[in-house]
Amino acid sequence: MGVNVFTMSGTVAIGSDHAGFLLKEALEDELVSGGYTVVDFGTDSEESCDYPDFGLAVAEAVSTGEAWRGVLVCGTGAGMAMVANKVPGVRAAACNEPYTAEYCRLHNDANVLTMGARIVDPQAAKRILHAFLDAEYEGEASRHERRLGKIRDVERKYMKEA
User: Fold this and answer.
1) For a 10 Å CB count at each end of the chain, is N or C smaller?
2) What is the total count of domains within the chain?
3) Residue 1: inside a domain
4) Is 74 among the catalytic positions?
5) Which of 49, 95, 107, 130 is catalytic?
């Protein structure tokens, strides 16, 4: 596969736990080479750590607008998606192949990508990353906006004031 040029530049927040550390580093290099500004929320080694700490930091950066998109890596991608989706305004999707990564953007306006380092190799992860970042939400005029509105309604129903 040749070098892809991302269609849009912006700030991407990235994070991982110990299982995802090496893949996170490879994805960060890919983002930087694609012209993105990257904010790395850790971890910084393969030493055992707790994924919710890093998933929360990335999700908060996306929720507050500090970052345009987020990327999280753990062993399966599932745990990071669970924690990130607790943050209002975050729509995290665990994607371990490009089709899901593309369509979670097109139809669901996902803003955080999670992946499993124990499931995808670095080359596959880069294809997934490109599929996610290159896809654009089909927009407010699409049939998906009604569904996205229902997701927001659920979020508002269960949000509690801090």
Assistant:
1) C
2) 1
3) no
4) yes
5) 107
Is residue 3 assigned to a domain? Answer: no
Say how far apart CA 45 and CA 43 lie, in whole Å: 6
Q: What is the pLDDT along the chain (162 residues), one digit of tens a residue?
A: 233 334 445 999 999 999 999 999 999 999 999 999 999 999 999 999 999 999 999 999 999 999 999 999 999 999 999 999 999 999 999 999 999 999 999 999 999 999 999 999 999 999 999 999 999 999 777 789 999 999 999 999 988 755
| Within a domain: 23 | yes
We report the CATH number of the domain holding residue 18 as: 3.40.1400.10
pTM: 0.91
30 belongs to a structural domain: yes
Which range of residues forms the domain containing residue 48?
Answer: 11-158
Instruction: Establish whether 107 is a catalytic residue.
Output: yes
